[in-house]
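S1.2 Input.
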Amino acid sequence: MEKPEITEDMILDCFAAATEGESLEGTAVSFVDVEEYENKVMYPEFARWAKKAGRPDLGRLFAKVAGEEGLHAHWLRELYTEMGTPERGDDTERAVEVLKTIRANCDALIEKNPEAVLEKALSVAVRVEQREYQDIYPRFRDQALEKNDQKSADIYQRVIDSEQQHAEWFQTALDDYRAEMAAA
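S1.3 Output.
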């Protein structure tokens, strides 16, 4: 039986996005949940794919960003110390389950075509980071500003700036990777 093709959209759909809550605390819980997910699941999985495909350089990039995603959660948790570790949200729980389902397919695809899988992972990483810094986290910052919570707004702005840098790193890596593949 032929395995289904893994598309960039399928990979992107595996990974949850934070959502704005009615309260600053609700938004913060969603934010921390997703940032910890990127720290513990998504980017480590992409790093695993890169290493399996013989690209430890890309594995290190994914691992570096994973660490910074955990730092984002830490920054916001400092503001809401009573938050603790939030339970996984429905979207993140779904993403973990879907990742388990596609892991075997991705490993099989890496064996057949590691370049395509890595290109898709880099493309997804660019899209995730762009979505966060262009759309999601500016809304969180603005919500904090509307509630006159400058401290939270400042944290969200730091994260926006960091996520933009991640998008730029991944875009550069993707462009370089595509150039290498074209030259090969």
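S1.4 Remarks. The chain has six helices and no strands.
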